[in-house]
Each structure stands twice: as structure tokens, then as C-alpha cells.
Write a structure and sequence with these properties.
about 250 residues; alpha+beta; Cyclophilin; two-stranded antiparallel ribbon; 14 strands; Peptidyl-prolyl cis-trans isomerase
């Protein structure tokens, strides 16, 4: 499942198609030379044209960057934490500065007892799209244990956290999720910021609208995973800093 958050919740069959050796040799992945090593994904091209991010020798790793996200449901102010996830912040700012997130739709809302998030960042709106590159995880180490998990392995992704969606280890791209209710997850998703109070009100509004039913939704039950009823379009994702992401 490309870029989807909960591979632990959804089974997916993958069919491998063999490519001619000459084609594989003609288009090897490109890798940036800095510490983040952003790597192109020729087999998973960008849904919108965008270059690999800058990858300086010393990735900015202190301080925070504010980002204003203007949506049709209200403002989503974000604060990105460079110290917590410098490569992730560098990539997010790169994409935002180039308009990659503008005029996109948040394609997924979940309402599981242990997973309450709004997922965005795919211009195709399918949950399958990305920027044509991937980069390594910067996993959290200080999240508190999830009280509902008897194994002690899961952690609480608290209301207001901003994190990357992925399709497995080191497959971060453009898709991200914002947590509107405390969630219990394995610590496999990079946390790189928080959502401001105005953004939490926006998320509550979207969540209160519910989730569109699908053909798989049992009759008489409320769906817990799918497109939000209150369609959430990101008109503009604007970093509030000079030259960041450039």
C-alpha cells in the first residue's frame, strides 16, 4: 500500500511485474549526497513534477518553522520541529515551497478507537500518490506508552501531533497525517510537528462530519475509515519563513 498509514489494519496484495534489464539499468535511482539521502523512486513517479530536496552537508536541526495551511474547512496552522526530524522538515518545506500540496484534498479520515487521524499530502487524492522520492525514518523515542496496549509496544500519538504516513520502513514521501484524537500506534511513524489550536478546531469539524460509507460498510454501522464527508481541500500550504525549502 503506497504511503498509506495503517498497513497494520489493511491487507494488500502486491503483484510484481518484471521489467527488462536494460530499462532498469537506464534509470537507476538518484540519491542526494547529504545526510538525508533523498532517493528517487522511478517505479513510483511523482504525481506532480518536483525535484529532489536540497540535502546540505549540515541539515538544519534546531528551531521550529511555522506553516499556514489554508483549507476550505478552516485554518490548519502547523509548527514543524527541525530538532525532532530535520530531514522530514526539510522535505516538507521543499514540497510546500514548490506548491506540491496546493489544491489537494485530504483523502482519508479514520475513526477507529485507536486511530483518529486526517491524512493528506497526495495530489492524486487516491492515497497512492507521492513526490517521486523517498527518505529514511526519523522515529520518535519519547512517546508515552499507549495505556490500552497490554504488550507495551504501542505508543500514544497524542491529539495535535503531525506525522508522516508511510508504506513501511524508510518509505516517507509526501503524505502526512494530523491526529485529532489520541491514537495507539507502533512507533513506526515519524513525528515532525504539531497542529495549533485553530487547526484542532478545524480537525474536530471535519471529524464530526463523519466518513463516507463504502460498499464494504456493513448496513446500519458508521464507517471508520474512508473519505471524510466534509471534503477537506488544501488551497494553500505556506511556510512562514524566508527562503526555507528553497
Amino acid at each position: 500500500m503506497k504511503r498509506l498509514l495503517v498497513s497494520v489494519l489493511t491487507a494488500l496484495s502486491l503483484v510484481a511485474v518484471a521489467a527488462p534489464a536494460s530499462a532498469a539499468e537506464a534509470a537507476p535511482p538518484k540519491v542526494t549526497s547529504g545526510p538525508c539521502q533523498y532517493t528517487s523512486t522511478p517505479d513510483d513517479p511523482a504525481v506532480r513534477p518536483v525535484s529532489l530536496p536540497r540535502d546540505p552537508k549540515h541539515t538544519p536541526d534546531h528551531g521550529s518553522v511555522d506553516v499556514a495551511v489554508f483549507s476550505n474547512q478552516g485554518l490548519l496552522p502547523l509548527r514543524l520541529d527541525r530538532a525532532q526530524a530535520p530531514c522530514t522538515v526539510q522535505s516538507f518545506l521543499h514540497l510546500a515551497a514548490r506548491g506540491f500540496y496546493n489544491q489537494t484534498t485530504c483523502h482519508r479520515l479514520t475513526a477507529y478507537p485507536t486511530l483518529k487521524v486526517l491524512q493528506c499530502g497526495d495530489p492524486s487524492g487516491t492515497g497512492e500518490g507521492g513526490p517521486g522520492y523517498k527518505f529514511r525514518d526519523e522515529l520518535p523515542t519519547t512517546l508515552p506508552p499507549a495505556p490500552s496496549d497490554p504488550t507495551g509496544k504501542r505508543r500514544t500519538y497524542a491529539r495535535g501531533l503531525l506525522a508522516m504516513a508511510n508504506a513501511g520502513p524508510d518509505t516517507n514521501g509526501s503524505q502526512f497525517f494530523v491526529v485529532y484524537g489520541d491514537s495507539s500506534l507502533l512507533p513506526d511513524y515519524t513525528v515532525f510537528g504539531t497542529v495549533g489550536s485553530a487547526g484542532l478546531r478545524t480537525l474536530d469539524r471535519v471529524a464530526a462530519g463523519g466518513i463516507q460509507p463504502s460498499a464494504d460498510t456493513p448496513p446500519g454501522t458508521a464507517p471508520v475509515d474512508g473519505k471524510p464527508v466534509r471534503k477537506t481541500d488544501l488551497a494553500l500550504v505556506l511556510p512562514l519563513c524566508l527562503f526555507c525549502g528553497r
